[in-house]
């Protein structure tokens, strides 16, 4: 049965509740603090009201920040007295459609009366208001510190975590990772409209489960993540990254997809001062892994930094170098093995930059990465046309000159028109120009390659397949494309002279040559450096050679003096 408090007791109760109210107003966004204060401050109040204990349970619907929804029950306050039956519930509906319920258990042998019930309602209102404020603040903090889509920490939070490690002197035990998911475009392609986001959120969840409590994984946008993992966990973490399986909603139902990732790794130095300074090493190592070395992961080191900076310089300097005509087409002669005469040349780009002649292996790879190479190809084509026109105009002896076409040209439907528009400014015969292409495995490129080759041949240009036998160019191309010349890659020629090692290469060479003959193609051997090589190639009926044995690539003026 209920009972009455004296006036003094009631006044004191009001004051105590008021104190709790003020105390709770000072804590921010942390449930643990809230429950600690509630436990400590509510005990005297509960004792007066004969409450043994109270629990609070919350049910919240699924939201972005709480993707699993929220359901939890906590002890709000436990006085240690034995609880009896006849508990009383006070419920509050939350704005998001959830509910928060406080359940009060009276001491054994008591039942709440009107006065207590009135106070219980009052306490519940307070608790709900405090809890709501804390929850809102908590959510707000979370939304400022996390990525809105996946709920993972954002970059700022991860850097804050690194800062904490620095302050605690622990940073030297950690690695930082820049992670990029492979082929996420594929997931977007097969998924329904919302499916892509859901799949990314699921991926993020799986990825973040690879981290321990004292580690952190955040999303920095798109399919890029950043992770701070203890160095001793490195191998296990990389193993986990290799295959993360997610369910993707496709128009025809759920489909499970396993994704791998590329990581740039930076072993954080003990002396690290600025959290932000981890960004450059991890992103450099990542682009090195992804674009240059084509590996799952790469550890950052000084050499990588130099390489990446060098590549960036190339791209930065490219435009102005092109405008200043710093790129120059060198010509390397091709020799007809039946006559022993120069029968052609290949135009190879050189970069005259800051007093040096820079070879293509320095500047071609960075230009290849984003397709800038096409601009260079057109420049070399133009210069080659100038050279040919000069020979014709001066009545010199002319030879066919080949130019290289990067595979990037196949992405651009106007490549052929562009080539024609350049060549049409000249009036030498098209039989003087040859185009070298490498094979492609991409089926879309395959189609555009067919068209480009057909168009070039229709216009009377010669076409050749470059680097034949390297995997870029192989046998299937011979089946589907009509080409004039097959350029045997240098890797076959290198070992011709060695008795045992070269035996397989010799078998291949002679068979490729006879195959090409039957397909009505000429064969040119690249990279011929020795007499042995030359003799063997002659013997098996190779048509042409190109290599240092005869000549290195030469300046056009030098080439003209010698051969034109
Ligand atoms: P590639 O098209 O296979 O060109 C042949 C390369 O082999 C040239 O290297 C040439 O100098 C080199 N070479 C020729 N004979 C010998 C030899 O006897 N021994 C050895 N070890 N090497 C020999 P380079 O000029 O450094 O060009 C390298 C690559 O750069 C070319 O390989 C080509 O893929 C690319 N490249 C050069 N210029 C251009 C260009 O204007 N456009 C495009 N797309 N790529 C180019
Ligand atoms: Ca070539
Ligand atoms: Ca080649």
Describe the fold and architecture.
- This protein has 564 residues and is an alpha/beta fold.
- Helices cover 44% and strands 23% of the residues.
- The longest helix has 32 residues, at 114-145.
- It is elongated and about 125 Å long.
- The chain binds ligand C2E and calcium ion (2 copies).
Provide a brief overview of the structure.
The chain is of the alpha/beta class and 564 residues long. The chain has helices at residues 7-25, 31-48, 114-145, 155-167, 184-190, 195-208, 234-242, 279-292, 302-323, 360-370, 373-393, 415-423, 443-458, 475-480, 490-494, 503-518, 531-539, 556-563; strands spanning 51-60, 70-78, 88-93, 99-106, 174-181, 216-221, 224-230, 244-250, 253-259, 261-267, 297-299, 327-336, 342-353, 356-358, 400-404, 433-437, 462-468, 485-488, 522-526, 544-546.
Tally of helical runs: 18
Q: Biggest β-sheet: count, sense, barrel?
A: 8 strands, mixed, barrel
Strand content: 15-25%
Percent of residues in helical segments? 40-55%
Task: Tell me, rounded to a whole number, the average pLDDT.
Answer: 87
Structural class: alpha/beta
Give the CA-based shape: elongated
- Ranges where pLDDT stays below 50 over 5 or more residues in a row are none
Terminal Cα span: 118 Å
**What is the number of E strands?**
20
What is the rounded Rg? 37 Å
Strand order of the largest sheet: 12-13-15-16-17-18-19-20
Spell out which ligands are present. Answer: ligand C2E, calcium ion
């Amino acid at each position: 049965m209920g009972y009455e408090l004296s006036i003094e007791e009631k006044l004191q109760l009001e004051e105590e509740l008021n104190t709790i109210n003020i105390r709770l107003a000072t804590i921010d966004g942390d449930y643990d603090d809230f429950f600690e204060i509630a436990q400590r401050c509510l005990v005297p109040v509960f004792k007066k009201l004969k409450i043994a204990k109270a629990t609070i349970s919350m049910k919240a619907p699924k939201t972005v920040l709480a993707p699993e929804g929220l359901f939890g029950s906590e002890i709000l306050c436990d006085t240690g007295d034995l609880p009896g039956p006849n508990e009383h519930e006070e419920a509050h509906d939350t704005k998001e459609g959830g509910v928060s319920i406080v359940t009060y258990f009276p001491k054994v042998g008591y039942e709440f009366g009107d006065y207590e019930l009135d106070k219980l309602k009052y306490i519940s209102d307070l608790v709900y208001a405090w809890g709501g404020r804390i929850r809102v603040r908590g959510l707000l903090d979370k939304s400022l510190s996390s990525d809105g889509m996946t709920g993972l920490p954002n970059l700022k939070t991860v850097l804050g975590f690194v800062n904490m490690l620095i302050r605690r002197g622990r940073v030297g035990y950690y690695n930082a990772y820049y992670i990029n998911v492979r082929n996420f475009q594929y997931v977007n392609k097969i998924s329904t409209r919302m499916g892509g986001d859901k799949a990314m959120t699921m991926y993020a969840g799986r990825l973040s489960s690879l981290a321990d409590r004292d580690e952190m994984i955040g999303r920095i946008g798109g399919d890029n993540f950043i992770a701070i993992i203890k160095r001793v966990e490195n191998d296990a973490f990389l193993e986990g990254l290799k295959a993360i399986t997610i369910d993707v909603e496709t128009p025809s139902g759920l489909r499970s997809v396993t994704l791998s990732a590329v990581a740039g790794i930076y072993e954080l130095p003990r002396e690290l001062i600025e959290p932000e300074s981890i960004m450059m090493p991890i992103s450099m190592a990542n682009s090195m892994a992804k674009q240059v070395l084509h590996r799952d992961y790469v550890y950052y080191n000084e050499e990588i930094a130099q390489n990446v900076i060098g590549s960036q310089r190339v791209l930065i300097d490219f435009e102005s170098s092109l405008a200043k005509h710093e790129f120059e087409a060198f010509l390397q002669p091709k020799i007809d093995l039946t006559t022993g005469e120069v029968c052609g040349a290949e135009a190879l780009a050189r970069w005259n930059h800051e007093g040096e002649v820079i070879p293509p292996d320095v500047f071609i790879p960075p230009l290849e990465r984003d397709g800038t190479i096409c601009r260079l190809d057109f420049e070399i084509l133009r210069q080659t046309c100038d050279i040919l026109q000069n020979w014709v105009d001066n009545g010199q002896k002319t030879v066919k000159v080949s130019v290289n076409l990067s595979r990037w040209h196949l992405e651009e439907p106007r490549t052929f028109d562009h080539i024609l528009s350049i060549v049409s400014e000249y009036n030498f015969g098209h039989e003087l120009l040859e185009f070298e292409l490498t094979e492609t495995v991409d089926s879309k490129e395959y189609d555009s390659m067919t068209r480009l080759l057909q168009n070039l041949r229709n216009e009377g240009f010669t076409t050749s397949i470059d680097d034949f036998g390297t995997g870029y160019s192989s046998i299937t191309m011979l089946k589907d494309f009509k080409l004039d010349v097959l350029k045997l890659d240098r890797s076959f020629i290198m070992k011709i002279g060695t008795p045992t090692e070269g035996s397989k290469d010799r078998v291949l060479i002679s068979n490729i040559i006879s195959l090409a003959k039957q397909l009505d193609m000429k064969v040119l051997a690249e990279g011929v450096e020795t007499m042995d090589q030359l003799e063997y190639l002659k013997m098996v009926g190779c048509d042409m050679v190109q290599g240092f044995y005869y000549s290195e690539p030469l300046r056009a003026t030098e080439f003209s003096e010698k051969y034109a």
